[in-house]
């Protein structure tokens, strides 16, 4: 490293002997400019790329499969019918593996020449890998691409709502492990309320209130009583699980017709947009909850980064004392925004009962809250990135179903494991540095 | 604006931090609030700024009694504060930091960054600050960050500006620039409260001086008072700044540091090409303004820094690349600069803290088990020897006063067989009695023939203890000079200059 | 004030001790008393703790949670609801029904957990208490693991994953290797403990090497373990031959933990092992060099590092031991509780229960022991309550999580019972030493 040090250092070393002549100039330029820096090279990304490229060679070439892979691009109800794409499995695997190796080599070159590896580069790598994988997995079979994507969006909706709640809560400085509990509470209350009233929107409102209530406990204990936020979150998840399961067994099963048979939201295709090939069926033939989700993502992103509210939220999460000294009430800001986070997450809970399943079941969220938490971290506390992460996790889950139908060569458990493994890699810093809001997790006490 | 504090009293439990303090700041006046660390200056200003609520007394602005429930109220009343630890959010831009708390918004609640940038530029130009509104605050040097703090206060139309120990992190040159800014502000009609414990600065810039001690106003002085008068007022008696010590009898060079460089995790070269040696039986003081690489240098000696180049040898054996454990085992005693954070485990008892860095083997550990009865005897003995005042050795260290905490650290480090003793900021934030004790023990250690390094940002301490002085600036050593070097020369060196005529001392000559 | 340059105000003579007090020290005001003062005796300390402090709060928290559980039971009871329908006509009926449902439930709980006088034989009468101890056995083991991690400043939420891996390892040895009596059991236990230790150690290693937060990693590892074990249960590695269910074959008799009190009781050797484990953890934390370093790292990692303690290694060791202890709980499940073959639900939620056990036991080994027995009693009694009163066992989760929430927030409990705050009147909160992780205005001012 020492050869990278600047040469004009003005050090007088006595032990070194005669010493350098003393510097005579009167006002060293020093006061303003920052100290010299040495670039730190990180080889993590190229290593990861190399690892995946190697995996591609092993899987798609060494264990390559023969036959043709068919991708269906349109559903039968589409106005514009696209022809199916047919790829020769082995040849495609070989070509794409070579592309991956080349990309990995380029990443090595990037790092060697002190260039940054951008997100788009990672995205290209990931997409190529994915196409190669799908081709390999569907040898001799047909993959319905629209179905795969529609299912992805469906499965991602609660994850995205949960992730948005997580982003807001953590940005304001309260670690939200209770997403699972907020989702479950939202699912339960919305099912009961919608059943009893027969009105879906009242059901949605119920979910919002339920999520807010769970958040209220989180906020009260962590902000007022200074209990460790992670502890409150974990315990709240247990509490909500116990409470909903108890009430389900004790009350709902006694009278399912009245209490647990809510109506379901119908799909509401948006004219014109829903006829765009592939994108239309995926994004614009969905229920109103999904459209609400689009709006929520946009509003949270805009709010967090472009408005006064967002500036204050982020200030409180990064440096609460600084916010305090400019007259922002730290704890009440935290309190109300944690409630807001719970309200948004509660909507995601409603999607389980009113959007997809149509009734409440014990522990029906099955860890979605923890995947949402993973999406928050993998998305680096950014609403858009967290949404993309949630979509990725939804995609992995849905892929497992689709491959299960066509007879997958990969055990479904490994695809289900994927979101969690990716998150471990992410927090271990293999996918770039992950840094959360500086003050998240730490209570703030004022005089 | 005229500011009056009348009979302000603030208690924390049994401790009265402010005891009926009266203070009047006339419009367009620089009023210095002088006092030792812990005299209650910061508490008073936090009351003024609405961060604390006073138990008694009132705050009066232009003859109107104020009631501040929080900093927001104080700011609206025209009080601004430049905090000692900047209240800036590192991941925000300058403009965002300045607008935070009184944001202007446009359509759909959108932040009006254009207006915020304009405000920053306008105030920057008025005072010649050269601050880029779109720079990330975390990337700016401390001097510039302080200007951002000033802009922040001025953008809220502050008529009374409180500077809380603003020079602690500045070089002498930056300090001079700050003084100029303060005068400029004063001329534009702003009243200034300047909190400090540095006499020179007070005399240079203040119109009036109020001295507080132990939470009480003990006197007022004009800037014409001498240093000695101010100092004795500040600490309550004539201070013996010099430490009684015999001339050093240095032996052979024990610690030799050669071309040492340290790179921090952000890739910045924080210590560069530093070379010096310390002889057996001498005290080498490392002077410099806070943040010029002293911390990293001592950490590198201790094996606490990861990216270190160059060579460190102690009695001929290399220390570089060794783990902290091995450095300690080679006989290095270390008093870290932040004792609460790095020196002690607050929830541990005195006894447990006394074995903290010896938890691996004899005499405190045998066969993987703790030797509790030995530890207790040892702790009783050391508490007595080092005059640790407590309810007993099972007292949690976090409940002791700063001075007694530091004695625990000293007791632990000095009860090992040492070949080198490194003390960083050994008297920071402790009472006068303990300061004397610590200084005596450091000199006694030297007199046992052990090489000693004392790192201090307090020039008084450096001059009192040092046999030789190395001055650090921006990660490098500007020069190594004899212990009797005049203060003004040291001050220049701390700004990175070696004044013509003062050649770096020859080691042999300095030791003599 | 006069015009002379210096006008000292009147002041008391300054002594070092009083200036120490004024320098903002935490020992504010307490005059320095010599070492002659006797340290309070052990019994005195214990007594104070019971009256003023944590033990009292713990007991009250349990009472409060049981009351809350009672309310939940009463509200959801059909007979109570019916009686409440004509409350204003005959309010007595409502109260009678409430009493009937709540007392019925808790009597059943007691009879299922401690002693059932209704049974004919003495052996049957005391069987409940042995059931309690049986349920407590894995809870204590896992609680010790979680508590140990707490003491080193880490949050092990990975109990589920560690238990699953441990169960799979111990189970595999239990039905695959056919070793002689004695040796087989020891090898099976060791396999499980090592498996759990490694799974926990991964989180420790990632934290030490990359700074990955153990909360996230352990949560994610739970799911990875779940899908991994689920997958193995579909392959010949763990699946019972000739079966289509994802379930393992039964454990060999030589690997089963022997019954302690004869075949009519379920209590097995695991209980003795767990007592030994408690003693071991107590010794480790309070009397060993490693434990000293663990505690130092847990309380102040910076000071520990400066004192030459290898903090990173401590994280790894602590998670290894923590995982091993949690793994022991998994071992008890397969070799003691469910010896007829296990599925991927073998952890039975104990990994999460362990967090509540450790919190209730305040991370102290014997505290955890007592807390484990209490929660074991809830479980044993809960099943009895479900069988005889038809009250879903999920109520136990509710009570358990409420206990932990209350314990974590002593001010709340004191407010409910209108107790004075023991900390406040006599010894004022030191203004400048807040909890280490708490950011305060005072902390800022003190800097």
Protein model, in words:
Chain A has 447 residues and is mainly α. Chain A is 63% helix and 3% strand. Chain A folds into two domains: 44-140, no CATH class; 146-430, ABC transporter involved in vitamin B12 uptake, BtuC, CATH 1.10.3470. A three-stranded mixed sheet of chain A has the order 2-1-3. In chain A, helix 4 (145-171) packs antiparallel against helix 13 (330-357). The longest helix of chain A is centred in the C-terminal third of the chain and has 28 residues, at 330-357. Chain B has 512 residues and is of the alpha/beta class. The longest helix of chain B is centred in the middle third of the chain and has 16 residues, at 172-187. The relative contact order of chain B is 0.10. Residues 505-512 of chain B have low confidence and may be disordered. Chain C folds into two domains: 41-113 and 376-419; 137-363, no CATH class. Chains in contact: A-B, A-C, B-C. Chains B and C meet through helix 1, strand 10, helix 8, helix 10 and helix 11 of B and helix 1, helix 12, helix 13 and helix 19 of C.
List the helices and strands and how they pair.
The complex is a heterotrimer of chains A (447), B (512) and C (447).
Chain A lengths: L43 H19 L5 E5 L12 E4 H24 L6 H19 L4 E3 H27 L7 H19 L2 H25 L4 H22 L5 H4 L19 H6 L3 H19 L1 H11 L1 H6 L4 H28 L10 H11 L4 H24 L5 H16 L16 E2 L2
Parallel strand pairs in A: 1-3
Antiparallel strand pairs in A: 1-2
Chain B lengths: L2 E10 L2 E11 L4 E5 L6 H8 L7 E6 L2 E3 L4 H6 L2 E4 L11 H6 L13 H15 L14 H13 L5 E5 L7 H16 L3 E6 L2 H7 L2 E6 L2 E6 L5 H9 L17 E11 L5 E11 L3 E5 L6 H9 L4 E8 L2 E2 L5 H6 L2 E4 L3 H5 L6 H5 L10 E2 L2 E2 L1 H14 L16 H13 L5 E5 L7 H16 L4 E4 L3 H7 L2 E6 L2 E7 L4 H8 L12 H5 L1
Parallel strand pairs in B: 3-8, 3-9, 6-7, 7-8, 13-20, 13-21, 16-19, 19-20
Antiparallel strand pairs in B: 1-2, 1-4, 4-5, 9-10, 11-12, 11-14, 14-15, 17-18, 21-22
Chain C lengths: L15 H7 L19 H11 L1 H23 L1 H8 L5 H23 L8 H4 L1 H25 L7 H18 L6 H28 L3 H19 L37 H18 L1 H11 L1 H6 L4 H27 L12 H11 L4 H25 L4 H15 L1 H8 L21 E2 H6 L1
Protein name (chain B): ABC transporter ATP-binding protein
Pfam families (chain B): ABC_tran
Keywords (chain B): ATP-binding, Nucleotide-binding
* Neighbour order of strands in the largest sheet of chain A: 2-1-3
State the end-to-end distance of chain A: 47 Å
- Major sheet attributes of chain A: 3 strands, mixed
Largest sheet of chain C: none
């Amino acid at each position: 490293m020492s050869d990278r040090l600047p040469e004009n250092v003005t050090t007088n070393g006595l032990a070194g002997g005669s010493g350098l002549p003393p510097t005579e100039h009167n006002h060293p330029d020093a006061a303003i400019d920052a100290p010299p820096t040495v670039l730190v090279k990180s080889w993590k990304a190229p290593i990861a790329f190399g690892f995946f490229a190697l995996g591609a060679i092993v899987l798609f070439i060494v264990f390559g499969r023969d036959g043709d892979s068919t991708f269906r691009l349109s559903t039968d109800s589409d106005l514009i019918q696209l022809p199916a794409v047919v790829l020769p499995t082995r040849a495609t695997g070989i070509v794409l593996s070579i592309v991956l190796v080349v990309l990995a080599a380029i990443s090595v070159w990037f790092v060697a020449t002190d260039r940054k590896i951008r997100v788009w580069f990672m995205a290209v790598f990931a997409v190529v890998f994915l196409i190669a994988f799908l081709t390999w997995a569907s040898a001799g079979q047909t993959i319905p691409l629209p179905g795969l994507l529609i299912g992805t969006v469906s499965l991602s909706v609660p994850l995205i709502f949960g992730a948005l709640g997580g982003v807001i809560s953590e940005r304001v400085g309260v670690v939200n492990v209770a997403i699972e509990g907020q989702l479950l509470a939202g699912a339960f209350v919305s099912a009961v309320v919608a059943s009893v009233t027969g009105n879906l929107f009242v059901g949605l409102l119920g979910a919002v209130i339920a999520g807010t209530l769970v958040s209220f406990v989180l906020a009260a204990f962590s902000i007022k009583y200074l209990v460790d936020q992670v502890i409150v979150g974990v315990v709240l998840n247990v509490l909500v699980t116990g409470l909903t399961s108890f009430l389900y067994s004790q009350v709902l099963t006694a009278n399912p017709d009245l209490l647990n048979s809510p109506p379901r939201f119908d799909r509401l295709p948006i004219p014109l947009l829903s006829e765009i090939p592939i994108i239309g069926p995926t994004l614009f033939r969905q229920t109103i909850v999904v459209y609400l989700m689009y709006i929520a993502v946009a509003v949270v992103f805009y709010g967090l980064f472009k408005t006064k509210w967002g500036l204050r939220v982020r200030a409180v999460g990064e440096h609460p004392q600084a916010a305090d000294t400019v007259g922002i009430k730290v704890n009440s800001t935290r309190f109300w925004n944690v409630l807001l986070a719970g309200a948004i997450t509660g909507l995601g809970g409603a999607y389980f009962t009113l959007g997809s399943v149509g009734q409440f079941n014990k522990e029906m969220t099955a860890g979605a809250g923890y995947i949402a938490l993973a999406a928050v971290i993998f998305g680096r506390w950014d609403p858009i990135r967290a949404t993309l992460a949630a979509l990725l996790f939804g995609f992995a889950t849905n892929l497992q179903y689709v491959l299960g139908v066509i007879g997958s060569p990969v055990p479904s458990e490994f695809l289900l494991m994927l979101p969690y493994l990716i998150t471990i890699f992410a927090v271990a810093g293999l996918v770039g540095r992950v840094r959360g809001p500086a003050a998240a997790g730490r209570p703030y006490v004022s005089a | 604006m005229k500011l009056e504090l009348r009979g302000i009293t603030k208690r924390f439990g049994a401790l009265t931090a402010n005891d009926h303090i009266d203070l009047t700041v006339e419009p367009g006046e620089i009023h210095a609030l002088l006092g030792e660390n812990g005299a209650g200056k910061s508490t008073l200003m936090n009351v003024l700024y609405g961060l604390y609520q006073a138990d008694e007394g009132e705050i009066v602005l232009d003859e109107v009694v104020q009631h501040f429930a929080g900093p927001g109220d104080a700011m609206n009343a025209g009080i601004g504060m430049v905090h000692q630890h900047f209240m800036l959010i590192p991941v925000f831009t300058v403009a965002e930091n300045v607008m935070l708390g009184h944001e202007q918004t446009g359509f759909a609640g959108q932040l009006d960054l254009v207006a915020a940038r304009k405000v920053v530029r306008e105030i920057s130009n008025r005072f010649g600050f050269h601050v880029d509104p779109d720079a990330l605050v975390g990337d700016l040097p401390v001097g510039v960050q302080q200007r951002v703090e000033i802009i922040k206060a001025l953008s809220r139309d502050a008529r009374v500006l409180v500077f809380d120990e603003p020079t602690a992190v500045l070089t002498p040159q930056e300090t001079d620039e700050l003084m100029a800014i303060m005068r400029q502000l004063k001329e534009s009609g702003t009243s200034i409260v300047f909190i400090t414990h540095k006499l020179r600065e007070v005399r240079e810039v203040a119109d009036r001086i109020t001295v507080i001690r132990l939470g009480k106003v003990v006197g007022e002085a004009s800037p014409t008072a001498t240093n000695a008068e101010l100092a004795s007022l500040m600490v309550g008696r004539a201070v013996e700044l010099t430490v009684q010590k015999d001339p050093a009898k240095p032996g052979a060079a024990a610690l030799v540091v050669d071309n040492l460089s340290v790179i921090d995790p952000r890739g910045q070269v924080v210590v560069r090409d530093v070379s010096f040696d310390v002889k057996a039986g001498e005290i080498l003081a490392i002077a410099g303004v806070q943040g010029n690489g002293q911390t990293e240098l001592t950490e590198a000696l201790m094996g606490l820094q990861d990216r270190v180049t160059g060579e460190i040898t102690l009695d001929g054996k290399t220390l570089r690349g060794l783990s902290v454990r091995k450095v300690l085992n080679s006989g290095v005693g270390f008093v870290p600069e932040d004792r609460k954070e790095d020196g002690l485990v607050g929830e541990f008892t005195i006894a447990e803290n006394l074995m903290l860095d010896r938890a691996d083997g004899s005499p405190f550990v045998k066969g993987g088990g703790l030797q509790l009865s030995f530890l207790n005897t040892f702790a009783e003995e050391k508490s007595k020897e080092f005059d640790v005042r407590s309810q007993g050795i099972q007292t949690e260290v976090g409940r002791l006063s700063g001075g007694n905490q530091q004695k625990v650290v000293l007791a632990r480090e000095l009860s090992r067989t040492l070949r080198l003793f490194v003390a960083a900021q050994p008297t920071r934030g402790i009472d006068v009695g303990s300061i004397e004790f610590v200084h005596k023990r450091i000199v006694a250690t030297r007199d046992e023939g052990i090489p000693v390094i004392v790192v201090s940002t307090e020039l008084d301490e450096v001059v009192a203890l040092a046999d030789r002085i190395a001055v650090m600036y921006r990660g490098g050593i500007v020069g190594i000079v004899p212990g009797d070097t005049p203060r003004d020369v040291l001050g220049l060196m701390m700004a990175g200059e070696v004044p013509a005529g003062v050649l770096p001392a020859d080691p042999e000559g300095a030791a003599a | 004030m006069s015009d002379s340059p210096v006008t000292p105000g009147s002041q008391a003579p300054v002594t070092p001790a009083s200036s120490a007090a004024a320098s903002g020290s935490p020992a504010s005001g307490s005059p320095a008393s010599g070492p002659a003062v006797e340290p309070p005796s052990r019994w005195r300390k214990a007594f104070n703790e019971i009256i003023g402090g944590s033990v009292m709060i713990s007991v009250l928290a349990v009472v409060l949670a049981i009351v809350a559980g009672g309310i939940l039971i009463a509200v959801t009871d059909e007979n109570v609801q019916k009686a409440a329908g004509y409350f204003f006509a005959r309010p007595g009926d409502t109260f009678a029904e409430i009493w009937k449902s709540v007392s019925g439930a808790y009597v059943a709980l007691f009879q299922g957990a401690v002693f059932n006088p209704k049974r004919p034989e003495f052996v049957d009468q005391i069987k409940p208490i042995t059931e309690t101890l049986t349920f407590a056995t894995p809870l204590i083991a896992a609680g010790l693991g979680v508590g140990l991690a707490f003491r080193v400043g880490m949050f092990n939420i990975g109990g589920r994953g560690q238990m699953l891996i441990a169960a799979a390892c111990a189970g595999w040895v239990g039905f695959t290797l056919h070793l002689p009596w004695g040796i087989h059991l020891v090898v099976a236990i060791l396999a499980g403990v090592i498996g759990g230790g490694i799974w926990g150690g991964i989180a420790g290693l990632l934290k030490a090497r990359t700074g990955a937060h153990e909360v996230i990693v352990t949560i994610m590892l739970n799911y990875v373990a779940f899908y991994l074990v689920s997958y193995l249960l579909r392959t010949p590695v763990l699946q019972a031959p000739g079966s289509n269910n994802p379930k393992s074959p039964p454990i060999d008799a030589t690997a089963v933990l022997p019954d302690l009190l004869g075949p009519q009781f379920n209590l097995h050797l695991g209980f003795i092992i767990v007592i030994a484990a408690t003693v071991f953890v107590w010794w480790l934390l309070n009397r060993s060099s490693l434990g000293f370093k663990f505690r130092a790292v847990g309380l102040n990692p910076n000071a520990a590092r400066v004192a030459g303690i290898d903090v990173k290694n401590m994280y790894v060791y602590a998670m290894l031991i923590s995982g091993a202890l949690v793994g022991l709980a998994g071992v008890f499940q397969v070799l003691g509780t469910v010896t007829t073959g296990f599925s991927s639900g073998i952890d039975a939620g104990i990994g999460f229960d362990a967090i509540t056990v450790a919190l209730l036991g305040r991370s102290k080994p014997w505290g955890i022991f007592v807390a484990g027995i209490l929660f074991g009693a809830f479980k044993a009694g809960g099943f009895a309550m479900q069988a005889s009163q038809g009250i879903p066992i999920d109520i136990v989760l509710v009570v358990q999580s409420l206990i932990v929430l209350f314990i974590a927030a002593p001010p709340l409990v004191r407010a409910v019972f209108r107790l004075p705050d023991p900390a406040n009147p006599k010894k004022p909160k030191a203004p400048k030493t807040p909890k280490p992780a708490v950011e305060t205005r005072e902390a800022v001012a003190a800097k």
